[in-house]
Amino acid sequence: MRPLSCRVPLRVTVDEVVARLAELAAPTLIAIDGLPCSGKSTLADKIQAAHGFECLYLDDFVRPRDEWPSRNRPAFPFEYVRYDEFIVAIRTLASKGECTYLPFDWETLTTSREPKTLRLTRPVVVEGVSSLNAAVVELYGLKIFVDSDRSTTLESAIRRGGATWSEEWRDLFLPSVDIYMQSHPDLRADLIVPGRGAGVPPTRS
């Protein structure tokens, strides 16, 4: 059942989002959620380039492959991610203005031994599937959902990541995301922007 909502998220373009962020007057957290390969990272990169905001990425909390409980058992919270640490990092950043964590090293496919610290001295973007998890959604000053075409997500993910991860995308990653998406995070957003395969919102006068 779809959750009830008293407001409808506003549909805007990527450029409109980037422009709106120039108006932020105080440090806050900005969530960017959406399906894999939807355009979340592209949006985060544009925000960084325009405003210099730092980012907290879900991908920094991936577990090394040998620590996954399963490679074909979909679940949410995601079991292939140090998900509790991701949630703690968001909460700590919001409450204390600073968080420190060990990011995943994508070159060695292991957890780095070098800690990374983020400080909320200016807005920080939280990017990744499930950033709008109901457990932390109230901590954000702005909530963005990137809309995209679910029917071609698997194909896009495999094309982007190569055949090495094709089974995991098919049997674990995307089915786990589908479980999360049943909570309709798009209805928790303030803004919805068009991503891969989605239409461009009409221009408003």
Task: Write up this protein.
The protein has 205 residues and is of the alpha/beta class. The protein has one domain (10-194): 3-Layer(aba) Sandwich (Rossmann fold), CATH 3.40.50. Helix content is 29%, strand content 19%. The protein has helices at 14-21, 40-51, 83-96, 153-161, 166-181; strands spanning 10-11, 29-34, 54-57, 98-101, 104-105, 110-111, 116-119, 124-127, 142-147, 191-194. A six-stranded parallel sheet has the order 1-10-9-2-8-3, with helices on both faces. Helix 4 packs across helix 5 (166-181). It is globular, with a radius of gyration of 17 Å. 32% of the residues are buried.
Features:
disordered N terminus; alpha/beta; Rossmann fold
Overall CATH class:
Alpha Beta
The helix content, as a percent range, equals 25-40%
Give me the CATH fold name: Rossmann fold
The second-level CATH architecture is: 3-Layer(aba) Sandwich
Give a count of the beta strands, DSSP E runs of length 2 or more: 10
Distance linking N and C termini: 35 Å
Number of separate helices: 5
Strand content: 15-25%
The strand line-up of the biggest sheet is 1-10-9-2-8-3
H-E string = EHEHEHEEEEEEHHE
Low-confidence stretches: 1-5, 201-205
Q: Describe the global form.
A: globular
Give the biggest sheet: 6 strands, parallel
Total discrete domains: 1
In the CATH hierarchy, what is the superfamily?
P-loop containing nucleotide triphosphate hydrolases
User: What is the radius of gyration?
Assistant: 17 Å
Q: What's the mean pLDDT score?
A: 92
> SS-based structural class?
alpha/beta
